[in-house]
């Protein structure tokens, strides 16, 4: 049975302060300021504090409204603490007045927080009597809120709770159920922790449950290690790498008198001199459309990759916009390698609202921002990879690696599945902020889900090499101009369960599972009250 609402539950302003503080702790768990490390235990503890506040409320309609407000405050604080750096892009680089930029960040967080408000209100409205039933209901509702944030209104799942667990024990679930499945398990653990009482230590049933969970977790961890070892194998020989990080100041990057000539000169020099097998330049490394370049520039920096040089065979992945101002343009990565009839081209599919496309009815807002090339055309899902040296290189751009189900769409044909993932980004829009470390954790989680290495070439960081187990093997210091020289070993073989089902069905199985579980637990709770 659930414990009754506590007579000593926080009163007055205390619940609201605790909810906001727990939300900020949840934000810190994703990438701790200062170290950038994700803290899985802090994510569970902060969510458990919210759950404890919810359990202290009366069941039914009387407590549902208050639960919804507590959940909304928690989520708004969490999301503001997670993506506060949007203020930098809108104010420092977009020219939006500081009060309006702050209001925009708060408004976005408050809107997205409404999903969690509904989840918390429904949880307390139903209030099933059994402790396990309550935990399952809370986890199912939290999963649905995370899915809604990740998919509705173009989706913005940055800071999902599962990313805090990339180094934690729940990471073993990534290859099977992905980041949202990890978030479900974390919510389950959080509600269980919130329900814990000292007298449980005297309960044989409680200890039996703890032992069963520990044994199951140990077996799952062993199975995961064996699956990673047996499911895939090395693809070809390791590739030598040169990952370029130009560190072009964002406020100058698109300025014809400063950032543009600096980018063309520095990247041009590096591309002509690089001796690695694979060279990767970040998103919009070349900040001009093809028609805006000096005639012959692009040919001069890509010729060696197209034609080869003696025994040296190299490939280049180069971020630059393609198209024209008149006919439309895309945020693209071009690929150059010997023997091509035409350069390889990947066009970004999942565009950033306001920064890369204008949502309906919001042109008035984008006109207040000073953002160049702000209305891109969209590429398709599941675009082919670049074949080179026995590898299949699959680019994605900027925050596209936030959408694992879209990356998984490239794995529907195992024979053509990528062996190496490549992220080209420009996080310079967000200054020297925690966004760099948060994005690195996102890429690491994708590597765990898909069991493929991930290369990251960025303007300001984090330029890094991540292996198929999600470990950072090489990294360049952020906010420095330089080249990360390293190696990557591609991986091939059977795809992970997550890649198999999400590549074909998207997130529909999680939606259906979450809805079914929530309805079942609500029904069980209603029966228990009759």
TrEMBL record:
Function, in words: Catalyzes the phospholipid dependent N-acylation of the N-terminal cysteine of apolipoprotein, the last step in lipoprotein maturation.
A Pfam family of this chain: CN_hydrolase
GO molecular function: N-acyltransferase activity
Keyword Thylakoid: no
Family: Belongs to the CN hydrolase family. Apolipoprotein N-acyltransferase subfamily.
Protein name per Swiss-Prot or TrEMBL: Apolipoprotein N-acyltransferase
EC number: 2.3.1.269
Enzyme class: transferase
Entry's Gene Ontology cellular component terms: plasma membrane
Pathway: Protein modification; lipoprotein biosynthesis (N-acyl transfer)
CN hydrolase domain residues: 244-490
Recorded topology in the membrane: Multi-pass membrane protein
Chain's gene name: lnt
GO biological process, one term: lipoprotein biosynthetic process
Compartment list: Cell membrane
Gene3D superfamilies to which the protein is assigned, alphabetical: Carbon-nitrogen hydrolase
PROSITE patterns: CN_HYDROLASE
Classification via SUPFAM superfamilies: Carbon-nitrogen hydrolase
Provenance organism: Oryzisolibacter propanilivorax
Record keyword DNA repair present: no
Transmembrane segment boundaries: 39-57, 69-88, 100-123, 135-152, 172-194, 206-222, 498-523
Keywords from the UniProt entry: Acyltransferase, Cell membrane, Lipoprotein, Membrane, Transferase, Transmembrane, Transmembrane helix
